[in-house]
Amino acid sequence: MFQWIVSTVSQGGYGGIVLLMFLENVFPPIPSELIMPLAGFAAARGDLSMAGVIAAGTIGSILGALPWYYAGRWVGSERLKRLADRHGRWMTVSPADIGTAETWFNRHCGTAVLIGRLIPAIRTLISVPAGIARMSLGRFLLFSAIGTVVWSGLLATAGYALESQYTRVADYMDPISMIVIVVIVLGYLYRLITYRAGASDTKSAD
Fold first, then answer.
1. What is the Cα–Cα distance from 109 to 113, expressed in whole angstroms?
2. 60: nearest Cα among 28, 18, 30
């Protein structure tokens, strides 16, 4: 995969960066932690401009977030609540939990999307609750763009500064991504073990 990423950026230029960042959002195993530092290295060599690199990374990332956003809109709150009613234990949420989360997300959706776009392993997933909550497309694009410009800019700048050692960026980011994934998995397992059907509904009624 690494050689394919290098080849795509080298031969495709800005278009290659857009394609890779689109795929990175649709298929998370393709790491932006390698794509953008490599693009920054290309800018340091004079093959591309930093502004163009960041713009291409941002465009590709936002395009890749849209399928997940629309998937969330397709699922919708009511359908998700019905799924939780049937499979609450494995989802570890009740319909009442979803209602509470929806209220919170509606209140903080802009901040949640912006910050979510900056967190490895969450960057793609944050698009789904935005769609479920029916966050307006304009707001979603605005806050996604702000967060993505920051993320892409930091990675590209790191690659620009490190030049031929740009792969070190991924070496630093991989442990962070792994920690986030482990925390998510452990949180899920904890909720699965401690989940009690109807508990959340009872609390809500109180």
1. 6
2. 18
Q: Are 9 and 38 in contact (CB under 8 A)?
A: yes
What 198-201 contacts at long range (C-beta under 8 Å, 24+ apart), as own/partner pairs, is 198/94, 199/94, 200/93, 200/94, 200/96, 200/97, 200/100, 201/94, 201/95, 201/96
HSE-up (13 A, CA, CB side) for residue 69: 22
3-class state of residue 163 by DSSP: helix
* Spatial distance between the Cα atoms of 149 and 111, rounded to a whole number of angstroms: 15
- pLDDT tens for 112-142 read 888 888 877 677 778 888 888 888 999 999 9
The answer for residues whose C-beta is within 8 angstroms of residue 46's C-beta and 6 or more apart is none
Is-above-0.85 flag for pTM? no
Summarize pLDDT for 8-53 with one digit per residue, the tens: 878 888 999 999 899 888 876 677 778 888 888 888 888 889 999 9
What DSSP designation does 165 have? Answer: G
Write the single-letter amino acid at 97: D
**Of 49, 78, 63, 51, which is closest to residue 21 (Cα–Cα)?**
63
Alpha-carbon gap, residue 19 to 176, rounded angstroms: 25
CB of 80 within 8 A of CB of 132?
yes
